């Protein structure tokens, strides 16, 4: 009996944790949106979906449109349109893909690098202020568990 | 001397934590995007920005366009356009605001409620799978620290 009860309590805990976490992740995503929109007049590439392409290219250096699309779960026509806007603004450049004549390799220009660095610095400043007063242990714990959650979410196939 | 050194180590820790967390939050936001896009053919209101309005209305029941815009940090013309799409799809309804003849109160229809419940259930299922094998302590710790981070981010004024 006791182990049955314990397992039931565990399940109830799990359901309340799942609900709480799903709501918490929505609120977090909303809070993160506000960082990139910011208070001052913000260039469009920092408010819209172009933001994702820019930061992704910063992390990965150079990618094909098809790789960007699958990594961001955006359809390729949307990626192409956004890349065109970023290219027009001088933030990304296209080079021929030596392995595929129809494809192009996309990377940040020097100006693009500078803009992404500014966007990331702004996010880091906000995160630094949000962490004010936290113990080292709590900061380490959050980082460890967030990384683990991302691995779990990304390995999910359903 | 020693306390000076200790404080320097603490500062270096903080900077590495801030950088790690900023990157982790980007990856998390990307993973969360994939949940709502999903594998099967997804209706547009679940992939685009309409998703935010739907979930927000679920949490808050009824809101003015201006309240939705400030809560999501989206400009009001974009909110109005998205609300029109959701209204056309029968997911939200507008009612006159008795306090302001020019404004309208927006809320979910029964169909809208059902769609949001499905979207949230899908996210909860993904979160539940991602939490598989976690101890109760780790789950509680993540929830507590995420909530605290959201409070810190939302109270930030810069």
UniProtKB/TrEMBL annotation, chains A, B:
GO terms for biological process: response to stress. Coiled coil: none annotated. It comes from the Bacteria. Keywords: DNA-binding. Residues 18-151 form the HTH marR-type domain. GO terms for molecular function: DNA binding; DNA-binding transcription factor activity. Pfam families: MarR. PANTHER family: MARR-FAMILY TRANSCRIPTIONAL REGULATOR, TRANSCRIPTIONAL REGULATOR, MARR FAMILY. This is DNA-binding transcriptional regulator, MarR family. It comes from Ferrithrix thermotolerans DSM 19514.
């Amino acid at each position: 009996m006791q182990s049955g009860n314990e397992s039931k309590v565990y399940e109830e805990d799990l359901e309340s944790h799942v609900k709480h976490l799903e709501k918490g992740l929505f609120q977090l995503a909303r809070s993160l949106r506000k960082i990139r929109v910011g208070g001052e007049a913000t260039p469009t590439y920092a408010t819209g979906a172009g933001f994702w392409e820019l930061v992704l290219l910063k992390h990965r250096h150079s990618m094909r449109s098809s790789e960007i699309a699958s990594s961001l779960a955006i359809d390729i026509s949307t990626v192409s349109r956004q890349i065109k806007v970023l290219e027009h603004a001088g933030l990304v450049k296209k080079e021929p893909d030596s392995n595929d004549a129809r494809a192009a390799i996309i990377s940040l220009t020097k100006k693009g690098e500078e803009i992404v660095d500014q966007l990331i610095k702004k996010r880091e400043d906000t995160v630094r202020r949000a962490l004010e007063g936290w113990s080292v242990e709590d900061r380490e714990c959050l980082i460890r568990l967030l990384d683990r959650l991302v691995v779990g979410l990304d390995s999910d196939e359903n």
